[in-house]
């Protein structure tokens, strides 16, 4: 990404994002590191986005996640909370529903991230609708790739169908959840997948000794 490729609104939004992140990570990362993560995060989405007005916000959110992960990996900050990374191919259905359930049930007692080996353009609409039936809103989420720092910072990595494309780092706890892909399916067809994901997330929280909301 170069500055000349951005319109005035995007440049302003990215400058605001950079300022927000620089303040948030002051004392942990310098401005140069923050800018690098913001730019590379933006580039992850810019090449495949069909609607560009949300790109700066997506880049800021993704850069924030990556910087928090890096801070944990490098020992700058570790709150001791269990961190789980949910991975699937497009990060549009299964991994998004799993993260949604995990965040809803765990609250601030654990951390969940998600990613994909080949991120799609948007979260599956049937998955969004199925989760909404359970009172969980994942409509503001967006597909994103996994990165080295998020994998390294995770205590548990749950993969769902990404096979050899999923990253392997020594010393991590890995699990493969065999679940039907919701892509192209109706809400009726997605509900059984959603319910199985909830069951597995609840079991995972029990194993991590994280109390789940009732």
UniProtKB/TrEMBL annotation:
Record CDD domains: LMWP_ArsC (cd16345)
Domain of life of the native organism: Bacteria
Coiled-coil stretches noted in the UniProt entry, renumbered to this chain: none
One example GO MF annotation: arsenate reductase (thioredoxin) activity
Keyword rRNA-binding: no
Keywords recorded for this protein, A-Z: Arsenical resistance, Oxidoreductase
InterPro entries hit by this protein: Phosphatase-like_N, Ptyr_pPase, Ptyr_pPase_sf
Keyword Hydrolase attached: no
Protein name per Swiss-Prot or TrEMBL: Arsenate reductase ArsC
